[in-house]
Amino acid sequence: MNIKASGLKRILFTVVIALVIGAVLILMIGENPIEAYQALFKGAFKGKFGFGNTVATFTPLLLTSIAFAVAAQAGAFNVGVEGEVFLGGIAAAYIGVNFTFLPKPILLITCFLGAMVVAGAWATIPAVLKAYYGVSEVCTTILMNTVAVYITSYLVSGPMSAGTANAQSHSVAVNLPQFMKPSSANVGVFIAIVIVVLVAIMLYKTKFGYKIRVVGTNPAFADCIGINSKKVFINSMILSGAIGGIAGCIEVLGVHGYFLNNFAVGLGSNGMLAALIARSNVVLTPFLAFFLSILKAGAMGMQQSTGVPKALVDTIIAIFIIVATMETLFEFKKKIKRKVKKEKGEAKA
Amino acid sequence: MSEYVVEMKDIQKSFGSVKAVKNGFFTAKKGEIHSLIGENGAGKSTMMKLLFGMYPIDEGEILINGNNTDKLTPKIAIDHGIGMVHQEFMLVGELTVLENIILGFEPQKGLKIDFDAAKKEVKKYIEQYHMDIQLEKKVNQISVGEAQRVEIIKTLMRGAEIIILDEPTAVLTPQEAQHLFKILMNLKKDHKTIVFISHKLNEVMNISDRISVMRQGQYIDTVEKGNTSPLELTKLMIGREVFLNIDKTYSKAGKTVLEVEDVWIPSQKETSKIRGMSFHVNEGEIVGVAGIDGNGQSELVEAIIGLREVEKGSIKLSGKNIANKKTRAIRKSGLSVIPEDRNTQGLNREMSIADNLAAVEMDRVPYSKGFMIRQEAIVQNAKEKVEAFDIRPDDYNLPTSSLSGGNAQKVVVAREVSMDNKLLIAAQPTRGVDIGAIESIRNSLEKAKKEGTAVLLVSAELEEIISLSDRIIVIHEGKITGEMPADEANENNLGLLMMGGTHE
Questions:
Q1: Which one of A217, A228, A341 has the shortest CB-CB distance to B15?
Q2: Best exposed site among B104, B123, B211, B398 by fewest CB in 10 Å?
Q3: Which domains does chain A have, with CATH numbers?
Q4: Is the pTM of this model over 0.90?
Q5: How far apart are CA B465 and CA B451, in angstroms?
């Protein structure tokens, strides 16, 4: 409990610093920061459209942040969530467009399953390369993101193209209902919340979760007590990929209704950011994801009612990243110091 | 000026909370070969790295040629004529031997490097000491022995008068080692001072003039080679401790539980570290494995518990072959392990005492049911174990990283001993543990034996082996050099076998 409390404090601290620096920037362009922030929060919460937008932004972020966190719990740094969102999206779109012979509820489930399988399979590649060949998953997942984006781009411009001016697929035959029109908030948000709750239970209450945490903290110990650390590592990457796939599926079925080229750019990295700030704690991560969503969704409102441009929010997020990474840096430094000390201590005579 | 070119007095050095060197003392005379010996972790390398200025000393003083040097760095050390050949060579694989040797102080001719002058200079050393080096080859194409000679020339080119070699023969074949010794003798004739770090006694006896012994960070003694014997050196290296008395019961040994037959096991660096080892452990007996650290003990244990492949031969647990099986399967068929490295393999330091105590059986009843973990059972188990094994502090929610060495080890022992398995492997069970915990851990092993468990005890403490075991096998360089009942064993006959001698 202690650890969680201090984690929460740290996060609040980070948020405040980012907002204060943002305020200074607003002052520098000659606007009133308090008014600007008021407008921002109004934009994010006021009315169906405002809050709906926040919810719509929150849904994929929540999933991508949890996807990153799950992999991180097993010791993997999965930068590939974004690629997994794209591939999950394209798989859902393909099934949703072509498998129309299935009854609607079953088609819906099939879309989700298809997205999870394709995205999970994609995540298996870097996982196996890391576990058995020692290839850094950071490199492979970054590279594979580009590959994933181009695969989907090719598909919606070619074989799966609807023939419109924008590269996009045909409309899918099944949708997730939107409930805060005119925003694109849809029932996907509940699916996402359920998944996060399930993941949290899985991590802290089940055998599989225990194994993930053991492998993430000490793989040598895992091997010694009979947990196959490589297998657990790979499985957690697959799970991470599958969750990314679900995010893609929800975006396609709930927001757009078809696969739109490049629809998920930034989803993976923003989710990763939320998870990194929360140190991949699955309980804290959702709050961070929500905070980022407020900033993103409220930006438009701020621009309309004050002279502060929307881009300022990106600046605040960037500052947020810098402050958060600095902290991670401190932590990292401490870790390295500890490691060095340990190694020196073990320096053989 | 005193007769010594190097004097190190009252040296202390800690890394974090670990005292690597407690009262280091070392002297070297001009033109001698001085060996520094001791077991792994005795502080030999650390002492010499301090002399070479790689770390600053905490306490004490270092005199080089009579001058007090309080702020040593490798650069200053080199200026004082000290050179060091590290265990890991510091060479650039993609450059040629010649380029490597002159790296950092290349002779210049205008703007270009004067390779001819460099070659001439290097050739001088090669001929003088019969080095046998091919200067034009790239370093990654030459043998380990040759790379080592390159390192030696590097130190000579930088003006070294005192050359430190850190376990130089560990990576060499016997022939290459002979070649190295010849070079060292030539260097000695030239009045260079050689510091030779090793734990191989035959080599030390072969080439040294004087020998200094360290044990657990402490300076023990310096002896003239002529006045000592391998046996005496072994005693100095291993030392005696308080003799902890355990009521040893000679139970009648029952059925064979562990049967190792002609196994060959590779190590990290070499194939066949263990070559053709056979032995067995019966129900209700403790078999001790004695040997100087690094003679294959770790590899043997890892192979039995399924963490290292077995090249050939069979390992049977209750008649079932477990060689090259998965750890999980071997554990299920009745194996408990107290691993050598408590902090990485024995415990998950980030998790609680309770979680660590249940770790091995987490996927069995009562700790889990179906997919779910049952926290009550884990807590219940933790309460019992913490009390039964006197683990302090008794707050089982604390991470094990907050425990002292002894209490942390008690967590491992509590977990492994309580599973009532047929076989218990205890690797260095009391290493780095306080006296109180030693006693408690040894009693746990003795109790397990009484209850019919077959125990394989691997320890670097001869005293521990002798006082706990029923039967002792001695290994040297991956082979069994002797086997005897514990009541026939003493430090002399075991020590001799540990050095590769034969049973009288």
A1: A341
A2: B104
A3: 2-330 (1.10.3470)
A4: no
A5: 20
